Amino acid sequence: MNLTDKHTIWQSIKSHIAVFDGALSLIMFLILSVGIVTLYSAGIDFPGRVEDQLRNILVAFVIMWVAANIPPQTLMRFAIPVYALGVSLLIAVAVFGIVKKGSRRWINIGMVIQPSEIMKIAMPLMLAWYFQKREGMINWRDYLVAALLLVLPVGLIIRQPDLGTGTLVLAAGFYVIFLAGLSWRILIGLAVAVGASLPILWSVLHDYQRQRVMMLIDPTSDPLGKGFHIIQSTIAVGSGGIFGKGWLKGTQAHLEFIPERTTDFIFAVFSEEFGLIGNGVLLFLYILLIGRGMMIAVNAPTMFTRLLAGAITLIFFTYAFVNMGMVSGILPVVGVPLPLMSYGGTALVTLGLGAGILMSIQRHRKLIQT
C-alpha cells in the first residue's frame, strides 16, 4: 500500500467520523459508560445483560451515524410518510395486535415491533414540518390542527394501554407546538382546562393506573403490593447517603429488593452505590447533554430544524425527569427508562436516532455571512 492509498483511506475515515458532533458524542459516551458500570452491578444476577447492552449500543451507534448523514431537507420529505406509517401501525395494533401482560402494544410484520416507539420521532418530525410550511402565517387554527395531529396517535397509544410511551409522545409533540410560538395565555387556559377535567380523566383511567397514582400519595397502604416499587426505590436512593455504599455494594439491589433494577429502576441502584455526589455528577452530564442539544437548536438555520432539534432535546429531558421522579417517589410509576442508562434496545435506538438527527442539523446548518 503506497502513501496515496493510505492518505485516501485516512481521508475516508475522517469524513465518516466528521459526521459526529464532538461535544454531544463525548457527553453521550460518558453517560453510556456510567450506565454500563451501573448495569454490571445491577445485572450481576442476570448473566449476559452487559453483553446484550453493548450490542444495543452498537446498533444505536449505527442508527445514529446513518441519521447524522441524512440532510434535514431529506428528513422533511419523510415527515408525512413516517407519521402516516406510525398511525397506520397503531391502528393495526388496536385491531389485531399481540397481547402481552394485558397490553396490546406489539404487532408481527415478519418481526415483532412496538409501533408506538416510532411516534417518539415521527410526532415532532411531522409537527415541525407542518409549522415550517406555515411559517409566517401561523394562527390559532394551525395550533388546533397540530393538536389534532398529536391527539390521534397519543389516544391510540394510551388505549393499548401504555401511559409511559403515551406521555413521551405527548410531550414530544407539545414541545414542538410550544416552541412554534404558542402563547402563555393559551397555555394557562389549557392548564385550567386540564385541572377542571381531572375528575373525567380519573374516571377513564385503568384501575392499575389509578392505583399507581394512589401509591404515589401513600405507598405504605400496600407495602408488599402496589407500593413495593416506590418504597424500595426511595429506600435505596436515601440509603446511599452523600458518598454511596460503593460499587457492587448496594444491599437493596443485591438482596433483590429493587424490582426492574436493570431497566426502569436502575437510577435507584446508581443512587445507592454512588450517593449524592454520584447523582450530582450524573445530573451534570444530563444538563450538559440538554444544553448542547439546545445550542444546536438555537443555531439551526430553519424553523423546521429549530423545532425538531428543540423537541428532540427536550425528549431527553423528559426521559430523565420522569424516570428520576418516579424512582424518587415524586411521580407515579409509568415505565419510562433512564436515557442511555437503562438496559434495553428499543429506547436506546430511539434516542440514538434522535441524537443522530441533532448531529445532522448541526452538520448541515447554513453559514450566514454578515
From TrEMBL:
<dbReference type="GO" id="GO:0005886">
    <property type="term" value="C:plasma membrane"/>
</dbReference>
<keyword id="KW-0133">Cell shape</keyword>
<comment type="pathway">
    <text>Cell wall biogenesis; peptidoglycan biosynthesis.</text>
</comment>
<feature type="transmembrane region" description="Helical">
    <location>
        <begin position="342"/>
        <end position="361"/>
    </location>
</feature>
<feature type="transmembrane region" description="Helical">
    <location>
        <begin position="265"/>
        <end position="291"/>
    </location>
</feature>
<protein>
    <recommendedName>
        <fullName>Peptidoglycan glycosyltransferase MrdB</fullName>
        <ecNumber>2.4.99.28</ecNumber>
    </recommendedName>
</protein>
<feature type="transmembrane region" description="Helical">
    <location>
        <begin position="22"/>
        <end position="42"/>
    </location>
</feature>
<keyword id="KW-1003">Cell membrane</keyword>
<dbReference type="GO" id="GO:0071555">
    <property type="term" value="P:cell wall organization"/>
</dbReference>
<feature type="transmembrane region" description="Helical">
    <location>
        <begin position="163"/>
        <end position="180"/>
    </location>
</feature>
<comment type="similarity">
    <text>Belongs to the SEDS family. MrdB/RodA subfamily.</text>
</comment>
<keyword id="KW-0573">Peptidoglycan synthesis</keyword>
<keyword id="KW-1133">Transmembrane helix</keyword>
<keyword id="KW-0997">Cell inner membrane</keyword>
<feature type="transmembrane region" description="Helical">
    <location>
        <begin position="303"/>
        <end position="322"/>
    </location>
</feature>
<feature type="transmembrane region" description="Helical">
    <location>
        <begin position="143"/>
        <end position="158"/>
    </location>
</feature>
<dbReference type="GO" id="GO:0009252">
    <property type="term" value="P:peptidoglycan biosynthetic process"/>
</dbReference>
<comment type="function">
    <text>Peptidoglycan polymerase that is essential for cell wall elongation.</text>
</comment>
<dbReference type="GO" id="GO:0008360">
    <property type="term" value="P:regulation of cell shape"/>
</dbReference>
<feature type="transmembrane region" description="Helical">
    <location>
        <begin position="186"/>
        <end position="205"/>
    </location>
</feature>
<dbReference type="InterPro" id="IPR001182">
    <property type="entry name" value="FtsW/RodA"/>
</dbReference>
<dbReference type="GO" id="GO:0008955">
    <property type="term" value="F:peptidoglycan glycosyltransferase activity"/>
</dbReference>
<dbReference type="GO" id="GO:0015648">
    <property type="term" value="F:lipid-linked peptidoglycan transporter activity"/>
</dbReference>
<feature type="transmembrane region" description="Helical">
    <location>
        <begin position="54"/>
        <end position="72"/>
    </location>
</feature>
<keyword id="KW-0808">Transferase</keyword>
<keyword id="KW-0812">Transmembrane</keyword>
<dbReference type="InterPro" id="IPR011923">
    <property type="entry name" value="RodA/MrdB"/>
</dbReference>
<keyword id="KW-0472">Membrane</keyword>
<dbReference type="GO" id="GO:0032153">
    <property type="term" value="C:cell division site"/>
</dbReference>
<feature type="transmembrane region" description="Helical">
    <location>
        <begin position="78"/>
        <end position="99"/>
    </location>
</feature>
<dbReference type="GO" id="GO:0051301">
    <property type="term" value="P:cell division"/>
</dbReference>
<keyword id="KW-0328">Glycosyltransferase</keyword>
<dbReference type="Pfam" id="PF01098">
    <property type="entry name" value="FTSW_RODA_SPOVE"/>
</dbReference>
<keyword id="KW-0961">Cell wall biogenesis/degradation</keyword>
<dbReference type="InterPro" id="IPR018365">
    <property type="entry name" value="Cell_cycle_FtsW-rel_CS"/>
</dbReference>
